[in-house]
Specification:
Mean pLDDT: 90
Helix content: 10-25%
Low-confidence stretches: none
Number of strands: 17
Radius of gyration: 19 Å
Number of helices: 6
Distance between the termini: 24 Å
Oligomer: single chain
């Protein structure tokens, strides 16, 4: 059955539909050897679809994994610097999985990986307002004043962003552990919010995303999402 190319690429778990549209507009997608255009359709069973020259492979069995990402791994699928990639940590599954959203190289914690593009879109779509919470180790002169600042709208990328919640989990001399919850997903958002009020982030760990929690999953390890967890995400549709 023919479907729009961006939907097929997303269903393969390669990227979101919006990102797929950008790839198509940039001439990076071909169908039967011809450069595709936005709006083109194809049949994944009959047509040879390629992204950046790599044949598109749609897995019949969908898999959903939670990874406790360690520091030092990137979540981009291609890295010109050859740094360690999170896909290495789930290679034993035997199916190519893609990260849902990103955690920068120096951040750690909860990362969902799947080959189901529709599920990834559901989890990332801003209309579903899945809150992400980060345990954030910070250093600064006045922690209390900085926390009050974080609770107010902050200008990033010429747009106002606001933490959903900020709590002090532990406080020490000129340092603290904060729990910062956000609904947006701007690049390095928590780090930049902290920097804007004079706090230096020394460690950043995502501990929850929507109804999903990292719990006691060891660093660098993964587990499959449970049926209950999958239903809790799909129930947002």
């Amino acid at each position: 059955m023919e479907q729009r190319l961006q939907k097929l690429i997303s269903a393969a778990g390669l990227m979101s539909r919006r990102a797929a549209e950008e790839y198509i507009n940039s001439g990076r997608v071909t169908v039967n050897g011809a450069v595709a255009r936005l709006g083109d359709k194809a049949d994944s069973e009959l047509d040879a679809i390629a992204v950046d020259g790599i044949p598109l492979r749609i897995e019949s069995e969908k898999k959903y994994v939670m990874l406790n990402k360690p520091k030092g791994y990137v979540t981009t699928m291609k890295d010109e610097q050859g740094r360690k990639n999170v896909t290495e940590l789930v290679s034993e599954i035997g199916t190519r999985l893609y990260p849902v959203g990103r955690l920068d190289m120096y951040s750690e914690g909860l990362l969902i990986m799947t080959n189901d593009g529709d599920f990834a879109n559901l989890l990332m779509h801003p209309s579903h307002n899945f809150i992400k919470t980060y345990r954030t180790w910070v250093q600064g002169e006045d922690i209390g004043e900085a926390v009050e600042y974080l609770r107010q709208p902050i200008l990033l990328d010429e747009c106002e962003v606001c933490a959903v919640d900020v709590d002090i989990e532990q406080v020490f001399f000129r340092s603290a552990i904060l729990l910062i919850s956000i609904s947006e997903g701007r690049n390095r958002q928590v780090r930049r919010m902290c920097e804007s009020c004079g706090l230096k982030v020394t460690k950043l760990m995502r501990i929850s995303e929507g109804p999903l929690t990292l719990g006691t999953l060891p660093e660098g390890k993964w587990r499959y999402l449970t049926d209950t967890e999958l239903d809790s995400i799909r129930g947002a549709e």
